[in-house]
Amino acid sequence: MERWIADEALTPHARNRRDACRVLGVDEQMIWPEAVTTRVKVGHDRELVGSYPYRSACPSTTWARLAHDATRDIVLGGYTNYFFWTQVPDFAGLVRRKAESGCRVRFLIGDPGGETSRQREEVEAAALTVSTRIGITLEHLARLGPLGGLEARFSAAADATNHVGLSVFRFDDDALVTPHLATAIGHDSPLLHLRRHGEGGLFDRFAAHVEELWDRGCAIDLREAGPPHGQA
């Protein structure tokens, strides 16, 4: 036992660790914390790269890096998605370059005129309303215009409550996921950074969620996209 504790590089087998801790009356993590962490991070939970108590606490460099590094598939499944144009430098240029290089870029947003959007505006009571934030996204998409590789859809009315409560932003095999708290705006809700390591893990489950919403969504004609009627 003294030899194990004296040499940090020496870690006994799991059975020996359990026996030693039982005799000493201590928790295994107290003596061999790295061994416990390694054991925990061998399942699907190893897909959790990091977590933030607020979406706004996730560095803008992380958003920019994931967007820049993606080469196959970018799916932005937030209900409004408007913050990307302020979060990522030259985001419009990045979207254009990605789409033109063969990366599929998709925007899934909520219907600004839908009942769920109206109800969410009452809950948030924010000066920058849900429909206004969606309008900002539509205006930026209109400026990009029809572009091969760029697609946009409104989520179906039947899916709106599921969409507004969970944002999934996918960049190839990385995803940033925000479960929205009761009355919190997106940037005040927590965020998880996931990276895919195998089938059926956390990443796949959230990716399947946004794909399901996408499949039932209504296509937006980017030639006619713009702010909702009555908004500048």
Task: Give a structural overview.
This protein is α+β, with helices and mostly antiparallel strands. Helix content is 42%, strand content 17%. The chain contains eleven helices and eight strands. It has an eight-stranded mixed β-sheet, sandwiched between helices. The radius of gyration is 22 Å and the shape is elongated.
- How many helix segments? 11
Rounded mean pLDDT score: 87
Radius of gyration: 22 Å
**Which percent band covers the strand fraction?**
15-25%
Helix content: 40-55%
- Widest sheet: strand ordering: 1-7-6-5-2-3-4-8
Question: How far do the termini sit from each other?
Answer: 72 Å
> What is the 3D shape?
elongated
Low-confidence stretches: 36-42, 228-232
Structural class: alpha+beta
Main sheet specs: 8 strands, mixed
User: What string, H for helix and E for strand, traces the elements in order?
Assistant: HHHHEHEHHEHHEHEEEHE
User: What is the total tally of β strands?
Assistant: 8
Describe, in short, the structure shown.
With 232 residues, the protein is an alpha+beta fold. It is built from eleven helices and eight strands. The protein is elongated.
